[in-house]
Amino acid sequence: MLFRSDHLLAIDWIEVADAVDHARAVDLAFGPGSAETMVTDLAANHSKGIYRAIVTRPGPQETLLMSSRLWRRYYDNGESIVEFPDEHTAHKRILACPDMPRGHEMLIVPYYAELVRQAGGRDVKLRHTRCVADGAEDCMTEITWR
Predict the structure, then answer these.
(1) What's the N-to-C CA distance of the chain in angstroms?
(2) Residues 97, 75 contacting (CB under 8 angstroms)
(3) Cα–Cα 20 to 30 A to 93, which of 10, 74, 112, 134?
(4) pLDDT tens for residues 24-82?
(5) ∠ at Cα 118 (9, 35), nearest 5°?
(6) Which has the closest alpha carbon to 109: 92, 96, 132, 87?
(7) DSSP SS3 for 90
(8) Do residues 80 and 124 make contact, with C-beta atoms less than 8 angstroms apart?
(9) Beta partners for 141?
């Protein structure tokens, strides 16, 4: 039996910094790139399950738009937006999160990449080009695909 309610609250919130520490520990324990594989596998599993409706949309652009709308379900502050300078490029930005920890791109970059692949994007490339941890006003990840 499934139970669903719009009034449920998450009981297992964790700080992003703790998730980054976990990713670093995975890399130390299992070798460089292991955390990226872990996050990629998580995104692949989500796209076949919990987020199936998002990645079955028509292509990477719609998938990235939908993923931005989900931001507030998982983060207690800030906002995620996406802009499309052209048909095969997205600028995914995180706004109003001044305490985003250094290294958080270990979590978001492989996740975004896998979502775009699951939505039909090929030759997906990502660069975390701006980061609040480095003093920028916002974080920006540039995503390109064919």
Answers:
(1) 41
(2) yes
(3) 10
(4) 999 999 999 999 999 999 989 888 887 787 776 679 999 999 888 887 777 778 899 99
(5) 70
(6) 92
(7) strand
(8) no
(9) 92, 128
